[in-house]
Amino acid sequence: MKQYICVGADVHDRSLVLKVALGQRQPERLSFANNPEDRAHMIRELHKRSHAAGEAEVVLAYEASGLGFGLYDELTEAGITCHVLAPTRIARSPKQKRDKTDDRDAEQLLQLVRAHVLAGNDLPTVWIPDLQTRDDREPVRARLDAGDKLTRVKTQIGCLLKRNQVRRPDGLGDGWTERYRGWLKSLSTSGQEPTAGLGTGGRVALGTLLRQMESLEGEIAELDQAIQALSLAPRYILAVEELDALMGVGVLTAMVYLTEMGDLSRFRNRRQVACYLGTVPSKTESGNDKDHKGHITRQGPARIRKVLCQASWARVGHDPQTAACYNRIVEKNPKHKKIALVAVMRRLAVLMWHRGLEAQRKTRAAPTAHKRVSSGDSTGPLRSAAAATSDDRCNTG
Question: FRET pair for 6, CA 20 to 30 Å: which of 129, 286, 292, 308?
Fold first, then answer.
C-alpha cells in the first residue's frame, strides 16, 4: 500500500512552520527560516523522511498569499507534490478565527491534506499561472496601480482647494484641461500673494501634489507603451484583437482580462466564469428560507471587476443593445441600479471569455500565423475602456 507524508505549511515572510505526519500518525512540528538555504534544508529533510518511509509520496499544502508561487516552484522542481490553497475557501469557525496561531494554521492545513490523500476529499486549490503569465501581469498591474494613485492625487488637489475656499474660475472648461492645469500651477507659485484663502502652506502643498501628478502621468505613459508592446506579442495578439473590437473594451481592459484570467480553457462554462469573477449573488437557503439572494460574492480578481465596470458604463452609454438590457432591469427595480450594472458586467465578462477562448485556441494552433495592426501609435497612450468614467462608479454593489 502506498504511503503518504502529509505536510501542512504556514508560510510567512521570514518563517515556515510545518506539521508533518506519515499517514494517520501523530504529526511532528518542524520550523525553518524562509530563505533559500533553509528552504533547501527543508526539502532535504522531507526527502529524507520519504526515503525512510519506503519512498513515500510527500504532499504539502500552504495558503496563497502575497509571497507568490516561488515556494510552489521550488517544491515542484524537487519532486514534492504541492498544493496552493485559497484562504477564502477554507472553512474556519469563529473560535478558530479568534485563536489563530501558526501551529494551528499548519495543523488545519495538514488535516485538509490528509482528507485529500486518504479519503479523496477535494482541496480548495488555486490555479497556478505559468512563469510567463506571472511576468506579464506585472506591468498591467503596475499600470492599474499608477492610475489609482493618480486619481487619489487629483482628489487631494480638489480637497485642498475646497478646504481653502478656492473656487475654479469660469472659462477653464470641465475636467483637467490645459487651462485648468495652468491655473493650478499659477496658484502654487511661491511668489504669488495669498489668494482666496490659499496661503504659503497651501501653495507648498499644492505644488508637491502637482509634481506628483506630473510624475505619475509620465509613469503611466511609459507603462502604456510597455503594455501596447506586450499586446502585440504572439501569445496575445489574436485575443487582444478580438476583445478590442468590443464596444467599451480597449487594449488595457483586454490585457487586464487576459493576464488575470490566464488560460481561458480552464473554465468549462459561463457559470464558472461568472463565479470566478465574483459577479454572482451570494445566497442563503436554510429551512423555509429558499432562494434568498444577497450581494455579489466579490471573489476572484478585483482588477477585472474594475475594468469590467468601466467598460460596462461605456457600453450602456453607446451600445443600444446593452442599454436596452440595462434599462429593462432598472425598470424592474429603480432603486437598485447597481444590480443592472452587475448584470451588464457579467454578460460582458462571458462574451469576452467566448471570444478570448476561441482566439487562444487559434493561437495554439498557429501561433505565428497572424499579425495585428495596432489601431493607433504603439508609443501613444492605450485606449482603455471608458477612460472618462470616474473611479467612484466602480462600486458594483
Answer: 129
> Quick one: DSSP state of residue 266?
G
Neighbours of 174 (CB within 10 A): 7
Of residues 30, 220, 89, 216, the one with CA closest to residue 143: 220
310 Cβ contact list (under 8 Å, min separation 6): 248, 253, 384, 385, 386, 389, 393, 394
Q: Is residue 329 within 8 Å of residue 340, measured between CB atoms?
A: yes
What span, in angstroms and rounded, lies between the C-alpha atoms of 113 and 52?
Answer: 20
pTM flag (> 0.85) = yes
Amino acid at the residue 330 = V
Task: List, for residues 356-387, the tens digit of each pLDDT value.
Answer: 999 999 999 985 555 554 443 333 456 554 44
* DSSP labels, 182-250: HHHHHHT-TTSPPBTTB-HHHHHHHHHHHHHHHHHHHHHHHHHHHHHHHHTSTTTHHHHHHHHTSTT--
- Contact residues for 293 (Cβ-Cβ < 8 A; gap 6+): 281, 282, 283
Distance of alpha carbon 144 from alpha carbon 203, whole angstroms: 29
Per-residue pLDDT of 171-204, as tens digits, reads: 888 889 999 999 999 888 865 555 556 888 999 9
- Identify the CA nearest to 327 among candidates 337, 315, 312: 337
| 191/195 Cα distance (integer angstroms) | 12
Hey, what's the cell of 193?
500673494
- Distance from C-alpha of 298 to C-alpha of 280, rounded to nearest angstrom: 8
Left if phi > 0, otherwise alpha if psi is -120 to 50, otherwise beta: which for 19?
A: beta
Cβ distance 326 to 248 under 8 Å? no
**In 3D, which of 133, 152, 137 has the Cα closest to residue 304?**
137
Measured CA to CA, the distance from residue 266 to residue 357 in angstroms comes to: 10
